[in-house]
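Supplementary notes for students who missed Thursday's class. We covered one full example, reproduced here. Read the sequence, then the structure, then the short commentary at the end.
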Amino acid sequence: MLTGPVYRNLKKHWPDCRISVMVKSAYVPVLEGNPYVDEIIPFRGLWDAIRRARTGGFTHLLDLHSNLRSIVIGRLSGIAHRTRYRKDAIARRLLVAFRMPSPALARHTIDRYMDCLSAWGVPTPARGVQLGDYQAPRESAPAPKNLLVVQTAFLGDATLTLPLAREIKRLLPSCRLTVLARHDTAEMYQSSPWVDETIPDHKSGEHRGLSGLRRLSGALREKRFDAALVPHRSLRSALAVWLAGIPRRIGFSSSAGRFLFTQRIPFSWGMHDLERNLGLLLPLGGSTTSAGTEGDAAIDSVYLKPKGTGPVAESVAKRLAESGPRAGRLVGVHPGSIWPTKRWPKERYAALIRRLTQEAGATAILIGGKGDADLAREILAEAGVPALDWIGKTNLSELVELMGKLSLFITNDSGPMHVATASGVPTLAIFGPTTRELGFFPYGAGHRVLEVDLECRPCGLHGSRACPEGHFLCMKLISVDQAFGAASELLAGVREAAARP
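Structure (token representation):
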């Protein structure tokens, strides 16, 4: 899957070149349909591979495996122009066997692939996996009429699963769609036009432990689902659909419970989680050419829209009116996170809010969970300027409605970040222990990520309680000047868009 950007860059630079890809027979279906691959050659042994290389009329050979066998094929191929992926195999073995880190392993595999193309003078603007780069075998079973989607992770994951629900309804309009979700994110699906029913998963309550899982699976069994899509990669989620006796169970190859699925879809860290989720529809005939029905990434990235009318809209409007006079544009600020290492320092948030108020003429409104209340008070006290404190004072419906009032959203890597981008709000995200390569960056056009290039990043998928290296440079090196500059540029873009006829 990670080779997809290679073919796109080659075709862009050499549009008339013919690209043949040799892969193991089992992986041929993954590349079928890739618009940049002209021929797929199944690997059938060393001597057959050498024969195919020598007689295929090839002018260039790109070795993206770099093991002894592929090196031998290259040497005996007779192909004039050859380049090879640098695997750093010894460094990898030392890391696995003795946990010995190496700077050589800090770079993403895709970046290493791009180095190969640079040796031929091929520009590499495409550096991420996209829908359409891979396929999955399509099952011949009838289209499901009663489908379950399991996403029992947190707010960000729940938000990024909504486009999957939208695409299910486009692909299977008569299908009944049910979502199993955490009890505290169920509201996100209950208000969705694409979800027919939501089943809350009370992980710390009635569905806790093995007895709770059996109880939950029994309730799912009664629904008689004929298929389940499982974007959540936990063993518990896979167990739930297996114990429920759902006949078709589709999940990711990286899932802890992948052995319980009837079909596994390739998982790549090189693409956004929103698009990874859409890949689960491949066995059901889903398209991989676009992330939605419009075929426009900028339009498709907006899938949460405030209603503008009704009790929730009226409540939000009333609360804003009662907050008193304020400066012009409203800027949302989310300074919290479950993980301390994901939080940009509070004194910097305070300084940023002060500059946004005094220099940009904006009013900050702080949002977050109830656990962020003390953090918000400290930030506002140090900022010393008028601002709104809505920490712990909005449910999910109110948060979506509030997003329609914002000109900008500033946040750590968090769930509300995805709510903002899905609502079409220009978003400035501050990334520390996590990186874009994990697939959870702001999706769509018009957003910015502030981060610094350090060999120790990423130090984990979710962040941690304390910096493993003890220096916390990933956040400390991001200055208030950088954040204010990026925020000002995004606000200027909002002004320009509003001025257009």
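Commentary. The domain at 4-118 is CATH 3.40.50.2000 (Rossmann fold). The chain has three domains: 4-118, 146-300, 311-499. If anything here is unclear, bring it to office hours.
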